[in-house]
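User: Structure tokens for both sequences below?

Assistant:
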Amino acid sequence: MTHIALGECHPFEAAGRHFLYLVPSAAVFALDDTSAAVVDTLRGRQLAPAELMARLAGRFEPAEVEATLSELAGARAILPVDPARAAEPPPAPAPNIIPLTPIPLSTLVVNVTNRCNLSCAYCYEYGEDKITEPTAGGMPKLMSEETARESVDFMIERSGNSPVVRLTFFGGETLLNFAVLEKTIPYARARAAEAGKRVEFSLTTNGTLLRPEVIEFLADNDVGVTISIDGPKEMQDKFRVFHDGRGSYDVVAPKVRELLKRHRSRPIGARVTLTSDVLDITRIYRHLTDEIGFWEVGFAPVTTSPGRSHAIGETGFESMLAQFRSLGYEFLEAALEGRRHGFSNVRDTIEELHKGASKALPCGAGLGLMGVATNGDVALCHRFAGSDDHKLGTVRDGVDGAAQEAFLDAHHIDRKTDCRTCWARPLCAGGCYHEAHTRYGTTEAPNLHYCEWIRGWTESCLEIYGEIAERNPAFLRQFDPPPAPAATEVNDDASEAR
């Protein structure tokens, strides 16, 4: 006799309601009393339909339960199971499909230099955990104007039918090669126009070289800017120091304030690296938003081997999660009042939940995003630029399609045993390739050291999303995809929060 059991889902509560996160589809459903009772009754067990009906008798009408079972089955929230088998059905495999060949490129990160004027002890490029010597094999320290133009041509040619392409400048310290930026941006804009496209520009910088003429250029050319900065003076100067050991805060802070005063066409964000010694997230956030004036702040734990003194341990991840949750609920309060809040970690996750992100791969590296080294070698992303082991081709000769597809196949979520049964996998998919390489020596390993942190943070974001969906759904409209070009009738099920 066929029984029924819960499919792959994660129940949670928000705004006094029960919700269900359906893992294979990444849909978020708000449950009514009947569906919540069905889910609660089936948690951890499989039941024959008659037994389930009997357990709910007296609380709900049989016809109501039957209708609810039909709806939940249609959403694959419940599944038929063989009672002789395990209580929980096996996870549904994620599709392993590459829909277009060659794979369209949406973002190209160009490392215009592999030099830096700072000497940050935790740096993944130059520190103890670097994967390659920046100038090994004759790699130039600065990208030439010719290579930068070739990178633009490569990006345009690989972008397929996309009307928008994104060009990000990176380093080393990006602004050490400002001369190439000045020449490349107008060239890229002209090449994109010829192809009927629009190009968006951005860069990451440590802020030390933000001279007035640089700020004017960035503002005039609508270049998005992310500043790598770790917080107040004592935190910034802990690791982000010049080669002679001097702290960088007193140099960076006034320059950033000038940038924020002049450049208002694009939000200016801060990117903070958290370490065992720099972990006061709330204070960092307050300083960077209230005192410096950043539009948004994003935090990331340091990428490093576990034995380093700056590596974050288990108690550090617990502290990080608690502080993330605190700021996350500040974001919630602001969202309910229709106000902006600058904590980008929660905003980014809320957007992914709203759009139903369900990842078979953790990020766009090697897929819609690639990185270019100073000599024109094309790698998985900017973090692997210059590494022969992670090279996919060159901007002159193109990408080895077979190697690219082999990489994507080897890193698919279904190849990661620990990940393919995790309810949080639609947003994580095993985590950053570079983090895995640094921690475990291979890009194919899942980042198991921060699984509990990821699950805890995803749970909090689901609760925040549910609260917003119930109490101020208009806030979520900013994350809606653009309307389809042709009118299409959509069945808008009111029980679905997304």
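Moving on to the next sequence.
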Amino acid sequence: MDASHAAAPAPGGLVSAGAGARLRQAAEYIAIPLFALAVSAFLFSLFLLALGHSPSEFFSLLWRGGFGTAFSWRNTLQRAAPLVLTALAVAIPARIGLTIIGGEGAVVLGGLAAAAIAIPLAGMVPTIVLLGCMAILAATVGAGWIGLAGYLRHARNVNETISSLLLAYVAIAILNFTVEGPLRDPGSLNKPSTPPIGRENMLSPVPGLEVPWALVVGIAIAIALHLLMSRTAFGFAARVTGGNPRAARAQGLPVGRLIVLCTAIAGACAGLAGFFEVAGIHGNANAALAAGYGYTGILVAFLARHNPIAVVPVAILFGGIAAAGGLIQRRMGLPDATVLLLQATVFVVLLASETLYGRLRFFKAGARA
């Protein structure tokens, strides 16, 4: 046997090396966000100590209010459901290299559109048909709204981060104008809103599970989008475009169409979140639709590394944090916005931790135990 053949690695060794590299990468994607959460908890503990409050009491109440009881879990899952959808509205465009932060606008307009079509149809068609029409219109309006930011990026090279954020403010203004003007329910004196869609048309929790339908649908969409982006030609083309748009154009990929489609998918997810808020929570469209789910979804998507599957547990985590706000306010005398400060701390530390990817020796391909 000559030297060249003797030095050649066995095929099994190549497979093992490739599997090891993938495992190290997966471990890095898990370890660094966990490290960011630990650092955030430490920094927030210092903040609490400076205010004269006990960090252990705070985190104990945080656990109890978000995950400690069956009621806490129901509240957490209710708050997590829209976060799954709004996080997907950030994660999918990110796979093609876009940063969309205006999902709040699609949530608001999706909810408004759902309520608007329900007003003339309520009592005229079966509930299942009414809810279907509401969901389809909400997704379509959301897709068009965020898809507009994608189109502006492709056709006029307008920064999608800025345009989507500005479009969110426009959407909120449209909501306020509509619920205080053309579609205002005369009976809504202190809290302007559209007429109710009717209690008989509201979504109940999943029978036997007491889980909101929004979460079930969100998980199903997350799985479908994960398969779309990882197992199809469309997803491969989107990833190539996100990695190098110029190379993608040189290979003949329809970059503009991919950008618009990914942003439209994102908008449809956020629009559905608005539909579920109307059909499952409020029963009408009002200013409470602008609850900040679109902005919290940004944090969820970043912590999940824009992985549609990872979005689900991260959304549940932040749903629990939000659900515990009231208990913390009552027991510790802290404002309800304290949990928002915790979320902001996590976001800042998370952004700082981005510099660690690819730099830690332990996770490098040639690392030795």
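User: Anything stand out in the second?

Assistant: Residues 287 and 343 are 23 Å apart (CA to CA).
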